[in-house]
Amino acid sequence: MVEIAAWLRARQAEGTLRELVDLDHLGHGRVRLADTEGPALLDFSSNDYLALSEHPALIAAATEALQRYGTGAGAARLMSGNFPVHQELERAVAALKGQEAALLFGSGYSANVGIIAALMGRDDVIFTDRLNHASIYDGCRLAGAGIARFRHNDLNHLEELLASQPVKGTRLIVVESVYSMDGDRAPLHELVALKERYGCLLMVDEAHATGVFGANGGGVIEEAGVASGVDLAMGTFGKALGSYGAYVAASRRMIDFLVNRARSFIFSTALPPAVAAASLAAVQLIQQEPGLRQELHQRVALFKGYLRQAGFAGDLGPSQIIPLRLGSSATAVAAAERLRAHGLFVPAVRPPTVPEGTARLRLSITRHLGEAELAAAAAALVACCLR
Ligand SMILES: Cc1ncc(COP(=O)(O)O)c(C=O)c1O
After folding, report:
1. Rg of the chain, C-alpha, whole Å
2. What is this structure's pTM?
3. Catalytic: 371?
4. 193 exposure class (CB count in 10 Å sphere: 0-12, 13-18, 19+)
5. In this predicted model, what pLDDT tens digit does every residue of 123-161 receive, in sequence order?
6. Could you say which of 97, 195, 239, 368 is catalytic?
């Protein structure tokens, strides 16, 4: 057991102490530091990319389910917590992801932990990208399988590891299609080819891609046309889909297996029906209204253009997540504080969330942010952090 007070002092000293910020959420992408008379800040930290959390269709669906079923599911799905809306949502997600079936989880964290630990065990090896999300790491640890970490998006390194690990049990490759803190994308075509060559399973976390990419919002898997090569397509409802919870889409047999083996599914209360109803409305909306996605991509392109015009010369990546790497935690925290004075709420992301020496501002673009606001924000960012 660590000495708690000393541990907290050490985090404070190195600039990595995490603290909750009291915020008033004003809607439309604006927040205010609570209990201050300060101005509203533009929120560049939310993953509500399509601004669906405030969409009338989601609010209406949730309200109706709330009136009908009340606030909670009352039990796990395998007890009495299985509502028709859960199953309807699973069918809709399976279709969106081009898979036979799907299973809901309470959150993306519990999905990753539950899926990986259910599938993998002592004789198996998990090949995991170094920049994978903490929930994937925790699933790998809980599984008790061998863990082979490959350098971020480095297919040669992955292949070296695949070739050098003895084939005994199951081998699973796990990646994110859009990396949460870097905004770059996994080379899915090549990963499918590798998984086929080496007889592995492939799991893709689309937490930051579902709703944002693909003609129907089915993610990078849909955009790249690789659904049939992906064994487990995991994603969340809490980001572009504006709701809460998570899913995995896979073959019917895989889902039947997870219903019996994924402990974070079995031993956890079902998602509230109203939350599932909002998620279902979101899954329908992203398919019916591709304009939501196009508008987001236009804003992202505009913002990147404004940053370049203002003098930023670095790589801004291929997605709505833009990392501005500043190095030390202290530099990133100081930059985030300066930005608040310019009316921008931008999180400083520090180790251990990101590797040592790569503390950064993580900018997340949402449909809440208008063109003029994005132009002003880009100018402020370049002036106060990058010169
Ligand atoms: C890539 C990735 N996977 C999983 C999760 C966890 O999802 P949730 O927030 O629903 O627990 C996140 C979110 O933080 C994420 O970025």
Report:
1. 21
2. 0.97
3. no
4. middle
5. 999 999 999 999 999 999 999 999 999 999 999 999 999
6. 239
- 22 HSE (CA, 13 A, CB side): 4
- On the 0-12 / 13-18 / 19+ scale of CB atoms within 10 A, 313 is exposed
For residue 375, what are its two tokens? Answer: 């132009």
Number of H helices, E strands in the chain: 14, 14
Which CATH number is associated with domain 57-288?
Answer: 3.40.640.10
Q: For ligand 1, pick from 135, 137, 248, 354 the residue to mutate: most ligand atoms within 8 Å of CB.
A: 135
Is 205 a known active-site residue?
yes
DSSP 99: S
What's the CA gap between 326 and 354, in Å, rounded?
Answer: 12
HSE, CB side, 13 Å, CA atoms: give it for residue 53.
19
Residue 364 Cβ contacting ligand 1 at under 6 Å: no
CB-count exposure of residue 185 (10 Å: 0-12, 13-18, 19+): buried
- Residue in 133, 152, 243, 362 to alter for ligand 1 test, most ligand atoms within 8 A of Cβ: 133
54 has catalytic annotation = no
Provide the percentage of residues in the chain whose pLDDT is more than 70: 99
**Ligand 1 atom, smallest distance to 179 CA:** 1
For the Cβ of 186 lying below 6 angstroms from any atom of ligand 1, the answer is: no
Q: Would you kindly state where each structural domain of the chain is located, as residue ranges?
A: 18-47+290-385, 57-288
pLDDT of residue 387: 65
Half-sphere exposure of 360 (CA within 13 A, CB side): 19
- CB of residue 205 inside a 6 A radius of ligand 1: yes
CA distance 119 to 17: 35
Q: Whose CA is nearest to atom 5 of ligand 1?
A: 108
HSE-up of 191 (CA within 13 Å, CB side)? 31
Query: Domain 18-47+290-385: which topology?
Result: Aspartate Aminotransferase, domain 1 (3.90.1150)
> What element of type H or E holds 156?
helix 155-164
Q: Is 147 exposed, middle or buried (0-12, 13-18, 19+ CB in 10 A)?
A: middle
Q: For this structure, is 28 an active site residue?
A: no
- Mean of pLDDT over the chain: 95
Q: In terms of Cα–Cα distance, which of 219, 197, 191 is closest to 49?
A: 219
